[in-house]
Amino acid sequence: MKRLGFLTVYWRDMLRFVRFKTLLISSLVQPALWLAFFGIAMAANFDRLAGSVPTIPGVPVVSYLTYMAAGVIAMTTLFTSLFGGIVLLFDKNWGLMREIMASPLPRDHIIFGIALSGMTKSFIQAVIIMVFGIIMGAEFFLGYSAGQVVLSVLGILLFVGIFSLGFLFLSAAISISLESPEGLQGIITLLTMPIFFASNALYPVNAFPPLLQTISVVNPLTHLVNGIRYYAIGNDFQSIGIHYFANNTEIAFSLSVLVIFAAIMFVVAYWRFQKAVVT
Amino acid sequence: MEDVNIIEVEGLVHRYDDFLAVDNISFSVYEGEIFSFLGPNGAGKSTAINVLTTLLHIQEGRAVVAGHDVAKDPSKVRESIGIVFQEVTLDRDMTCREILEFHGRLYCMPRGERRQRIDELLALVQLETKRDTFTKHLSGGMKRRLEIARGLMTRPKVLFLDEPTIGLDPQTRLKMWDYIKAVNEEGTTIFLTTHYMDEADRLSDRISIIDHGRIITTGKAYELKNKLGKDLIYLETSDNTTTRAILETVESVKDIRDKGRGLVLLVNADGTRLLPRIMEMLGRHGIILETVNLKKPSMDDVFVHFTGRELRDGGAVNTASAVARGGSRR
């Protein structure tokens, strides 16, 4: 029974997620809006520019909307996960954290519970963006059989899940160490900028200066986007005049980076939670 | 009732950096009683409770709660106790039932037992009609009752109540005391902290007066009051110095203290009979009595007697609490 204690934390966080209709709806509508406005506006520009770039013969061409839809899934996962731990901070100041800390529940179960509910939210969002993206014209799963589509969706969710765990652990670690939600907001803004823009979510990294390229290589977001594109678009395509080719080793490498990142973040969170005193 | 210790504390010391919040206290709580820590804000009550409930690591000394050492076996301690915190710790957006359900799940109570216990407790604290109401719509008293119900979910051996009636109106406080007594009568030992004299007096079997992190005295309310004598007589006279000299020779006057513009006499005899004698003696010395007051010692008097100061929101008290709050943040 005790080994399932994290389900209590999970249950309660999901209860809140479903209960706050505004939070629920805005978290679902927001990525759709990204796709609708930024996606279409940028797609019009990029596709026009791409028209002047010679295409590589024999490689399927993918529209910019398709290209960036994968990035929007990744970006949404990043934001949702980074904010996933904020409930801990509210609980610490005004809610149930003292009760939880005074209970026999092992502290790593708090981390697991919050991570699991954050991961669930990211799954829901990822699926919604995929559906909405396809409706808007993103060419996901083009020419896939039904079985291949199912496998690809599972592959995307695997990447999304592990990536979100890493950032949820980080978010939980920051939240339990801080005193005020304002502080968390500041730190998250500080983190999202480089993670988001030094990645391949919205544009290719090939033209980056060397330093930025290095950052993009160790950036977990880049590896999440690699995984999503691999499963949603394919392992050999071109977009905005750049040839994307990924073999299985590269995808396995990207997955490994995410696993290692999540593992490190868990250790950090575990350490912060063992040290945390809430009175 | 034979006194069996359910809490034993020896030489407990707790510091926040260089602020000594709890200064070497030792005490026992008997099984089945209501035991109070009475003292001003910042006296170290909450710190002591936080150590006993394992929210703070014990720094020095030894504490055993419900048969388990807080240092060696904190999770066993946690399973045996219930806590009602000083501040409201409810999720505004959960219903009363969900609050209790969450607690039951946290402690791994089986589903059937959980459901049954929720029904029992909502009835006990008379919140049956609020079962599916969000806690943000509850009054202050209802929130407190819900928190008490939560503290009792797992049938703890000891229920810790940190300032259970702080911020409640007088009527609600009286009702709260009834709930606390009812819980105690069902067999739960209660450890409460309070800075309200009347609360400690009316509610507890035994009281420890705590100030500046130290226990100053412990006993049943009437024992503490008896230490002050049978009655208190307050006098304002034309010549307090002479009055003091005269009355110091009276055998049944245990102690004389200055208070404001007058003197307080702690007397061992029946004050109503002693007072005419005193007035006569003073009259013989030509001292004019301006004010006379006779009363039974209250907990306020007990507190002033043992700590040498009033338990009002005076300057000293506020400074002490500010230091303690600053310390507890770290």
Please characterize this protein's 3D structure.
The complex is a heterodimer of chains A (279) and B (330). Chain A has 279 residues and is mainly α. Chain A has 11 helices and 2 strands, in the order ααααααααααββα. Chain A has helices at residues 6-19, 21-50, 64-83, 86-94, 97-101, 107-136, 146-177, 181-197, 210-218, 220-232, 248-275, and strands at 236-239, 242-245. Chain A has a two-stranded antiparallel ribbon with strand order 1-2. In chain A, helix 3 packs parallel to helix 7 (146-177), helix 3 (64-83) crosses helix 10 and helix 4 packs parallel to helix 7. The longest helix of chain A is centred in the middle third of the chain and has 32 residues, at 146-177. The model of chain A has no long low-confidence stretch (mean pLDDT 88). Chain B is of the alpha/beta class and 330 residues long. Chain B has 2 domains: 5-224, 3-Layer(aba) Sandwich (Rossmann fold), CATH 3.40.50.300; 229-296, 2-Layer Sandwich (Alpha-Beta Plaits), CATH 3.30.70. Helix content of chain B is 39%, strand content 28%. Chain B has helices at residues 45-52, 74-80, 96-106, 111-124, 140-152, 170-185, 197-203, 221-227, 240-247, 271-284, 299-307, 315-329, and strands at residues 5-16, 19-30, 34-38, 60-65, 68-69, 81-84, 158-162, 189-194, 206-211, 214-219, 231-237, 253-259, 262-267, 289-295. In chain B, helix 4 packs antiparallel against helix 5. The longest helix of chain B has 16 residues, at 170-185. Chain B is elongated and about 80 Å long. The chains are: A mainly alpha (279), B alpha/beta (330).
